[in-house]
């Protein structure tokens, strides 16, 4: 019986990559085909969004849309801008502009740390492609709002508000919101934004990581002293585990921080995180992680396509700052992930999946939330990975 289970496990772990190797189309063709598909698929997705809401997922035949204060509200518009950039589809551009209007009030929101996700993924891409001054102004205002959550004693941006469970929690996801802070300072905004970003990144570097470069999800601080109260998880399998998407946030975050600062400590950290991910014995052959690297039931645990897409995008940027065998390793791993996500195991067919591109993501497994479903940010980082590959390697 044990031999049978092992054989099944090996088949599961190897099947996706074997399929990809035998059916691969040239990457340039794949990328162009994917953006054309995305344009048509997102026109279907757009029809499922109630006025004033933003799309999140699709489950049990129903579209799931949330209020604009939800942390994912910027990914839809951001995805549309990536699609428009590659296709020049004017209908996609109009939808992207309309989606910006929906979330524009978030620029003054101070209720959590997610302004970077909400406003830079959306308005950042919009400004990059259009140069409109009003978009830049929204980004600057959003950076000011996020700066209100900086806690000088803790030397970090507080993620969630105080509760019965947490005093001053900081989650690894928060590294992603630093991109907006860096950009705002570098593009005419107050220099304090970048100073906050660097200080936060240094505090996270000190307290969030284990010797093997894996990251805790949550570090809770004493807001009066700045001392660490506890290191824990919210979405991972256990306090001691390596939640897959969290490792992706960390990889992307420190790669991005190196881009803005050229601090070699950040590059060293990013390389360490990448090697932890890519050399982990529980990483499947198709390189789409299980929802947690230490999840119970591997190799039958749920996958997380969103973590795969995020890691691919981060690895492509990291490959720009490395050379030789390192560069080859990071680029090759990203290619494997892209081919895996574009294959039938993870990729929706036109008109299916509620209009989303990717299947089989996992939001918060311990909370029984968003398990084995499409997620808007999986699409966003997949599209970003495709765009980055085309920009840097084609």
Can you describe this structure?
The chain has 13 helices and nine strands. The protein has 394 residues and is mainly alpha-helical. It has a domain at 1-47 and 242-394: Glycosyltransferase. The longest helix is centred in the first third of the chain and has 22 residues, at 2-23.
Write the layout of secondary structure elements.
Blueprint: H1 2-23, H2 27-46, E1 54-59, E2 62-66, H3 75-87, H4 90-103, H5 115-130, H6 133-147, E3 150-151, E4 156-157, E5 168-171, H7 178-186, H8 192-207, E6 218-221, E7 228-232, H9 244-261, H10 264-278, H11 305-320, H12 324-342, E8 361-364, E9 369-373, H13 376-393
Antiparallel strand pairs: 1-2, 3-4, 5-6, 6-7, 8-9
Helix pairs in contact: 2-3, 2-13, 3-4, 3-5, 3-13, 4-5, 5-6, 5-7, 7-8, 7-9, 9-10, 9-11, 11-12, 11-13
Nutshell version of this structure?
By secondary structure, the chain is mainly alpha-helical. The protein has helices spanning 2-23, 27-46, 75-87, 90-103, 115-130, 133-147, 178-186, 192-207, 244-261, 264-278, 305-320, 324-342, 376-393, and strands at residues 54-59, 62-66, 150-151, 156-157, 168-171, 218-221, 228-232, 361-364, 369-373. The protein has a domain at 1-47 and 242-394: Glycosyltransferase.
Provide the gyration radius in Å. Answer: 20 Å
Mean pLDDT: 95
Order of helices and strands: HHEEHHHHEEEHHEEHHHHEEH
Question: Mind telling me the CATH class of one domain?
Answer: Mainly Alpha
CATH domain topology of one domain: Glycosyltransferase
Per CATH, the architecture of one domain is: Alpha/alpha barrel
Roughly what percent helix?
A: 40-55%
- Tell me what portion of residues adopts beta-strand conformation: 5-15%
Structural class: mainly alpha
Shape: globular
What is the spatial order of strands in the main beta sheet? 5-6-7
Low-confidence stretches: 1-8, 14-21
- Distance between termini? 48 Å
Number of E strands: 9
Sheet with most strands: 3 strands, antiparallel
What's the tally of helices? Answer: 13
């Amino acid at each position: 019986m044990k031999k049978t289970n092992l054989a099944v496990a090996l088949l599961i772990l190897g099947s996706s990559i074997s399929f990809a190797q035998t059916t691969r189309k040239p990457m340039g063709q794949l990328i162009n085909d994917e953006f054309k598909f995305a344009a048509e698929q997102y026109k279907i997705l757009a029809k499922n969004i109630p006025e004033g809401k933003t799309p999140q997922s699709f489950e049990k035949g129903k579209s799931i849309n949330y209020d604009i204060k939800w942390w994912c509200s910027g990914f839809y518009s951001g995805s549309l801008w990536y699609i428009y950039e590659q296709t020049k589809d004017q209908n996609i551009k109009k939808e992207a502009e309309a989606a910006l209007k929906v979330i524009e009030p978030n620029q003054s929101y101070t209720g959590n740390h997610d302004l970077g996700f909400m406003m830079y993924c959306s308005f950042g891409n919009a400004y990059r492609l259009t140069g409109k001054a009003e978009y830049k102004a929204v980004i600057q205002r959003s950076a000011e709002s996020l700066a209100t959550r900086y806690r000088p004693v803790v030397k970090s941006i507080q993620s969630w508000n105080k509760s019965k469970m947490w005093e001053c929690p900081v989650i690894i996801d928060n590294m992603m919101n630093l991109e907006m802070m860096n950009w705002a300072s570098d593009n005419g905004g107050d220099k304090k934004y970048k100073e906050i970003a660097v200080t936060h990144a240094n505090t996270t570097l000190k307290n969030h990581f284990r010797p093997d470069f894996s990251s805790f999800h949550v570090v809770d601080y004493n807001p009066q002293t700045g001392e660490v109260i506890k290191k824990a998880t919210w979405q991972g399998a256990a306090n001691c585990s390596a939640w897959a998407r969290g490792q992706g946030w960390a990889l992307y975050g420190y790669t991005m921080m190196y881009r803005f600062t050229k601090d070699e400590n950040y590059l060293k950290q990013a390389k360490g995180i990448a090697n932890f991910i890519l050399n982990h014995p529980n990483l499947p052959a198709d390189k789409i992680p299980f929802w947690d690297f230490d999840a119970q039931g591997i190799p039958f645990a749920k996958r997380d396509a969103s973590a795969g897409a995020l890691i691919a995008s981060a690895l492509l940027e990291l490959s720009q700052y490395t050379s030789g065998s390192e560069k080859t390793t990071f680029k090759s791993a990203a290619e494997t992930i892209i081919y895996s996500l574009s294959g039938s195991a993870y990729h929706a067919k036109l008109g299916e999946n509620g209009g989303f591109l990717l299947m089989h993501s996992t939001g918060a497994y311990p909370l029984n939330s968003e398990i084995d479903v499409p997620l808007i940010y999986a699409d966003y980082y997949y599209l970003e990975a495709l765009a980055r590959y085309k920009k840097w390697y084609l």
